[in-house]
Specification:
By secondary structure, the chain is mainly alpha-helical. It contains 13 helices and no strands. The protein is 72% helix and 0% strand. The protein is globular.
Length: 316
């Protein structure tokens, strides 16, 4: 990649990593997270998707939707747990390279050592057009489990989208931008900052290690993240799980469906999948940062052994 990027991109900086190594650590952590949280991700989508009866089109109680999701998982536990995994893994490149590239690129250009909130904002907006098609395909693969018992083939989804010039792959982009912003601000920036505070205040005693402080930080951030993003996630599911061949659902129609759900079932209608969403967020954030930090440590050890560490590097 040296013909695409300046040589300084590969030079080890004062944090003990080169920007290239840092990017690889973020991508590796994301791949570990994707595999680990896929069953929870799949289950949460079905709980939110089954808010509407497929035959009558009527909104059903949250308990009924959860029961139907449970039935799908009991009938095909392996298929349901692995559904959408390949698009998500491929999406580590298609989704994460633009997002992490903008996040870390902005950080590098501004001279910061860690991503800040402006970097998170730029990454969430700039990466949305790349992320949305992958999320759309992922949700379409799971959308028909209740009727077919199997995930929808990837090429069938792409064929249907191609018949409409691939425009359906961009359904749900507006709520995604808000979702992505919350994810970047709370997950990529807020969690590491909180973890450092926890490590300083609690971990300095030596009783609590880095993995434990990671879990504590994730557990604190996750409920906030889910409260902010759960309605946005619902909008995405509503807009992205209807048939590609059919008419798209606008953002206003999706909001209308959520409003009707709230009118009928109160806040529980808006926050369907909230509990499983918090569990997913804790698992996801913990796996991501544990994977990222593990890979970063391997790079740092290699940089030390090769004598590549800059004079200003300080061991933390």
């Amino acid at each position: 990649m040296s013909f695409l990027l300046d040589q300084s991109y590969y030079e080890v900086k004062k944090n003990g990593l080169s920007p290239f190594q840092n990017m690889c650590a973020y991508l590796g952590g994301s791949a570990i997270q994707t595999v680990g949280d896929n069953p929870v991700t799949a289950y949460r989508q079905l709980v939110q998707q089954y808010a509407k009866d497929a035959v009558t089109g009527e909104t059903v109680a949250p308990a009924v939707a959860a029961s139907e999701a449970n039935a799908v998982f009991l009938k095909s536990p392996v298929s349901a747990s692995l559904s959408g995994l390949w698009p998500r893994l491929i999406g580590v490149l298609f989704k994460r390279v633009p997002k992490f590239g903008i996040l870390l690129g902005y950080t590098y250009i501004t001279g910061e050592t860690e991503p800040g909130y402006m970097a998170a904002t730029a990454a969430s907006i700039g990466s949305a057009p790349f992320i949305n098609p992958v999320r759309m395909i992922e949700k379409q693969q799971r959308a028909y489990f209740k009727t077919t018992g199997a995930e929808k083939p990837l090429f069938e989804i792409l064929k249907e989208a191609a018949a409409k010039n691939f425009a359906p792959l961009f359904r749900g982009t507006i709520p995604l931008m808000g979702h992505s912003l919350a994810s970047a601000v709370l997950g990529l920036v807020g969690q590491p900052k909180l973890q450092k505070w926890v490590q300083k205040e609690i971990g300095s005693s030596g009783v609590v290690g880095q993995s434990a402080t990671n879990l504590i930080a994730s557990a604190v951030v996750s409920p906030i993240y889910v409260v902010v993003t759960n309605p946005l996630s619902r909008l995405e599911v509503i807009m992205q799980t209807n048939s590609i061949k059919g008419k798209s659902i606008s953002i206003f129609e999706a909001v209308g469906e959520m409003a009707a759900d709230m009118a009928k079932f109160g806040l529980s209608g808006i926050f369907r999948g909230q509990g499983i969403g918090i569990a997913k967020a804790i698992v996801s954030l913990t796996l991501f940062h544990e994977g990222r930090l593990f890979i970063a440590r391997q790079f740092k050890e290699r940089n030390k052994s090769k004598g590549w560490m800059p004079p200003e590097y300080k061991e933390k």
